[in-house]
Design brief:
116 residues; mainly beta; four-stranded antiparallel sheet; 11 strands
Length: 116
């Protein structure tokens, strides 16, 4: 059974930083592309960052990294803004993509709230 468990969310002031983590189990982690998406209330889910199995990355503002030895993908978020407030989801898929469809597995999400 595949599980993706996110952690590291919370409440932070604008301008602050957070590092999200996502630990994967039940899959060959090093063979999967990993992505971070977010969804704010009343809005569509949107791409945040993704990283291929080999470490190639694509991101909008934040830094994504992975540790294959720990089955973990990270999202370093700096200079946070109130509009970054959302539930952040980790996903695993066969290829790096900015779209949701290629991702087969999803975590339950972690809440990030940025106060002004």
């Amino acid at each position: 059974q595949v599980q993706l468990v996110e952690s590291g969310g919370g409440l932070v002031q604008a301008g602050g930083s957070l590092r999200l983590s996502c630990v994967a189990s039940g899959l060959s982690f090093s063979r999967y592309a990993m992505g971070w998406f977010r969804q704010a209330p009343g809005k569509e889910r949107e791409f945040v960052a993704a990283i291929s199995w080999s470490g190639g990355a694509d991101s909008v503002r934040f830094t994504i990294s992975r540790d294959n030895a720990k089955n973990t993908v990270y999202l370093q978020m700096n200079s946070l803004k109130p509009e970054d407030t959302a539930v952040y989801y980790c996903a695993a898929g066969g290829r790096l993509s900015r779209y949701s469809a290629p991702y087969d597995y999803w975590g339950q999400g972690t809440q990030v709230t940025v106060s002004s």
